[in-house]
Amino acid sequence: MSAESTTQTTELTSWIDGNLSNVTNVSAPDGCITLQLRPFEFNPWDNPDNLMSHEVEHLFDVIVAVGFLYVLFLVSAPTNVISMIAFYKQGIKERINLCLFLQSFADLVYMTFNFLLYSDRLYLEIRNGPSRSFMTAMMLNNYLACLYSFSWASGFMTVVIASERCFCVVSPFRSQRILRTRTMGLIIVAAFVVIFGGFFVVGARWTIACIFSPLTQSTSYEIYPRQWYLQHKQIIDTLDGVYGLILPCTFVFVVTVTTTATVVKITKMTSWREKTSSANVAAREIALTRMLIGTSSLYVVCSVSHVVTRILILCLPDFSIGGRYSNTFNFMSSVNELFTYINSSVNFFIYYSMGSKYKETVRRMFGRSSEHNDISVISRSTIIRKTGTDCLSNQMP
């Protein structure tokens, strides 16, 4: 057994001791660690207390990692690139365009990372190989799990966009004076550094090794914590609690409150302008409201399962990778990943269907702009300047 395998065995023994099993180096295939269970113990995935069978959990994981991820990546990659180009063309000196540009970038990086992470999964399933792939092992063992933080960065951008829109609608003149693009950029950079740095520590606690089970005579790549995490477990778990529960709950709460306030304010403004015959401006604000509801609702819906999972982790100690409910835990993790993939892939369609300025920019990129559309854009800009609602116009991608 190599020095690296010996180190892995020591770390894995420290984690499993008193919980599931002892680890020895007996009869292990090359590069693998043998799992020797004590009498009357089970593999974590075969524990009879599991609420879900390993077969069902594995099938759903394959459907998400091979089916949905591959399809959604083929949608997400080009659409996020198109969105980045469109917002850049509209001018990233505008606050909202800068935020939407960075959100599309974060979604692109996150989806690309996951696609590479599971790129060999289909091949392994066809040849009945281990469920944890070589790519997964390489990513975890080289501390690249921190790239998951781009999903949190995307969520943070949703919070910034919703808050900026709310401030702009409620107090347009003050927001123009206080929320400058440079200030917004500095806040975003600082937040990205904090999110990435914290997630690097949280994500780096896990590594992966080839485990051989004498009971089933099969091998699998299993995730387990590193030794330094076990030595500082309380500190890392506290940090993980902040990132895992407090941040998503805060994000969802802020997006919900700011979106509700924005919708209420715009509804009142729309009603007033309809009574004063400002039909064109009212139509534009109705479109803005629809887009805001669409993007914010998508984020909130896609975040609910993650919040529920984190609450279950706090309430049920065995709801974990190596606990009695490991299959259910893994199933919920796959559900969370699926919703995150969806949230990172479909914003383009919301922008295109509800954002007239965004739609026109994309059409121009592909040479499909028309004279009628050019006149419409000029007319809308003239109306905006005359009505003094320039802040609202900047919110319309």
Outline the structure in words.
The protein has helices at residues 3-16, 54-90, 95-117, 121-126, 134-141, 149-170, 172-178, 181-203, 227-231, 233-275, 279-315, 326-343, 347-354, 356-365, 371-387, 390-394, and strands spanning 21-24, 32-37, 206-213, 218-225. It is α+β, with helices and mostly antiparallel strands. A 4-stranded mixed sheet has the order 1-2-3-4. It starts with a helix and ends with a helix. The model is unreliable at 1-11, 13-26 and 372-390 (pLDDT under 50).
Question: How would you summarize the topology of this molecule?
Answer:
Layout: H1 3-16, E1 21-24, E2 32-37, H2 54-90, H3 95-117, H4 121-126, H5 134-141, H6 149-170, H7 172-178, H8 181-203, E3 206-213, E4 218-225, H9 227-231, H10 233-275, H11 279-315, H12 326-343, H13 347-354, H14 356-365, H15 371-387, H16 390-394
Parallel strand pairs: 2-3
Antiparallel strand pairs: 1-2, 3-4
Q: Please state the structural category.
A: alpha+beta
Please tell me how large the radius of gyration is: 25 Å
Instruction: Report the uncertain regions.
Output: 1-11, 13-26, 372-390
What is the number of helices? 16
Shape assignment: elongated
DSSP strand content: 5-15%
Q: How confident overall, as mean pLDDT?
A: 76
Order of secondary-structure elements: HEEHHHHHHHEEHHHHHHHH
Report, as a whole number of angstroms, the end-to-end distance: 58 Å
Organism: Batillaria attramentaria
Transmembrane segments: 62-88, 100-119, 139-162, 183-208, 242-264, 298-319, 339-355
Domain G-protein coupled receptors family 1 profile: 79-351
Subcellular location: Membrane
